[in-house]
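Researcher: Go.
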Amino acid sequence: SSLDEELAVLETRVRELGSLCARLKLENRSLREQQDALVEERARLVEKNETARSKVEQMIVRLKAMEAGH
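Model: Structure:
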């Protein structure tokens, strides 16, 4: 009967939505892990950049002091 056919179609759609939901959960978890890794990497790079900037500034101060001493 047509009711059985409609139920079969609905059952198929529900199953498809269930598997789509599972796939999206996995993808979401993966993207969150990637985001966490990128945030950590960015923090490391910012710290590295600050360290390099500080060293360059110290070198400039020393060079200016040497220049003034001559």
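Model: The chain has a mean pLDDT of 96.
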